[in-house]
Amino acid sequence: MRFLLINPYYPISEGPSPPLGIAFLGAALEKAGVEVEVADFVVTPYSVASMEGILKRFQPQFAGVTSVTMTFNTAADIVKDIKKIDPDIVTVMGGPHVSFCAEDTMALFPEIDIIVKGEGDESVVELTRAMEDDRKWDQVKGIVYRDASGIHNTGDRQQPADVNSLPVPARHLLPLGRYRALNMPVSMTTSRGCPFKCIFCVGRKMVGAKVRYRNATSVVDELEYLSTLGFPQINIADDLFTANKKHCIGICDEILARGLKVKWSSFARVDTVTREVLGKMKAAGCDAVSFGIETANADILKTIKKGITIEQVLEAVEMCVDAGVTPSASFILGLPGETPETLKETVEFGKKLKEMGVLYGFHLLAPFPGTEIRDKKDKYNINILTDDWRMYHANRAIVETENVTAKMLDEIAETWEENINKWLDSIKDKMASGTATEEDAYPLVNLERTLLYYQLMTDQLIEAEGGWKHSNGIPTQTESLRTLVKRLVPHIKESEEKLFNALEYATNHGNLTFRTDSTSIRWGWTDYL
User: Fold this and answer.
1) How far apart are the C-alpha atoms of 138 and 155, rounded to whole Å?
2) Which of 82, 272, 328, 425 has its CA 20 to 30 A from that of 265?
3) From CA 175, how far away is CA 525, in angstroms rounded?
């Protein structure tokens, strides 16, 4: 049995990281004896021809595509292509978007055979067994499937997965090296579940209200392994790492007991951190904590069922600063009850937090399927402007309130982006004048390097230009790199010097490999670690 897992295109601007959910599914399938391959179209370009090549070579019985709301249309297009290439392949979709509009999605997209709802670790394994048992999909809980008689919902799974029995994510299936080259973090989880009821989030519905915790030993085993891969950051991607003090401190104590020197970050709520917890996290290597603040207005905080106060926000920030942990805050604009006055209140509060040492940013409300805010939009008096899922990236307005228009929200988002560009331009000016320190220059240098690598990856330029024959003795690596640069320059709007420096950096960090023999040279990305 062969199962192809697919990660659809996701913009580099969204800061993608190695797909953890797919790695979990891959591990569950491999444990069950299924042969698995991952096609990751975030860091490799997609085309019908490339998909046709994968299907011809791997010949899977299943093709499973994940998606969030913003990537759903891309994922659906891939499924359509798969069915055109080989109608016999069973197509499966999963992820938070289709989990909450499964039957409607199946009705609109006849190319989708099965939708897996919620956590899919156990469901995908049972699908492979049902395939062997004459495709008895009705035996698998937690799916919606189609057969000759129509669309059928098998109901929800009764028990969530035991997180301590799940295998470690199969990251060996992922092109980790490309993500590392792009300077993206690698993520892991120590728990599943979220006990809170924020009306704009589907986390609680996806993974359950009861938090299930992994034991500290297995968590730190995985963290220790990830620390050997050379990523710039390890992100603990739990909905709420600090939900349970004993769990959080237990992991930190295990890190300290092993003497691990590893840098990591996590998500938290302002009402779940204490000086003791933050101090222990800092000692164990945590250098940043992200808080969802959402708004500075007390009434809106109550409306969205956030369950925090501005006083708690300020106290949590002070504790982070005192502990030496960098706090970051995210806000959502366009929430129910938003007015021009509350928008100003939130923008000004963000500036105040910045003065306290907080990194912060804005998103615009995207009412995803499955959220209370979407299901009860009339109650919350919001107007959803579009169901074009490609617009659900939270960077432009797709919602209006009674007193706030899309134009008002977009103006704030555009001003925020302009300010970031001005900041980057100021770094460029300092570099040009020779007054920028290495620390000053790093944000711009890193961004430009990342975008350059991404263009090389998506245009497959290293694959196209990275191999050639030679006859006058075996050139050194540096000589070969200069030749590679000359071959790439016609395709890249960049100077030879800057391109050489970027590729030399990638080579020195093990992200670009050089191989040669007596007649030929081949450069390539380090895909698998």
Assistant:
1) 10
2) 425
3) 9
- Tokens found for residue 389: 């899922």
Class of domain 185-404: alpha beta
Alpha-carbon span 193 to 233, nearest angstrom = 23
Spell out the domain ranges in the chain: 2-153, 185-404, 459-525
In tens, the pLDDT along 486-498 reads 999 999 988 999 9
- Please list the alpha-helical segments (H only) found in 134-274: 176-181, 203-207, 216-226, 245-258
The reported pTM is 0.95
485: left (phi over 0), alpha (psi -120 to 50) or beta: alpha
Cα distances (angstroms) measured from residue 173 to each of 5, 36, 168, 427: 10, 8, 12, 38
- Other Cβ atoms less than 10 A from the Cβ of 122: the count is 20
| Average pLDDT score over residue span 391-407 | 96
The average confidence (pLDDT) of the chain is: 96
Q: Which residues contact 329 (CB under 8 A, 6 or more apart)?
A: 290, 291, 292, 293, 313, 317, 350, 353, 358, 359, 360, 361
Give the C-alpha distances (Å, rounded to integers) separating 315 from 269, 328, 497. Answer: 12, 14, 48
Residue 473 has pLDDT above 80, yes or no: no
pLDDT tens, residue by residue, 418-434: 999 999 999 999 999 99
DSSP-derived 3-state class of residue 82: helix
Are the beta carbons of 186 and 176 closer than 8 angstroms?
yes
Q: What is the 3-state secondary structure (H, E, C) of 204-237?
A: HHHHCCCCEECCHHHHHHHHHHHCCCCCCCEEEC
Give the CATH architecture of domain 2-153. Answer: 3-Layer(aba) Sandwich (3.40)
Measured CA to CA, the distance from residue 95 to residue 131 in angstroms comes to: 21
CA distance 465 to 469: 12
Q: What is the tens place of the pLDDT at every residue in 174-221?
A: 999 999 999 999 999 999 999 999 999 998 889 988 999 999 999 999
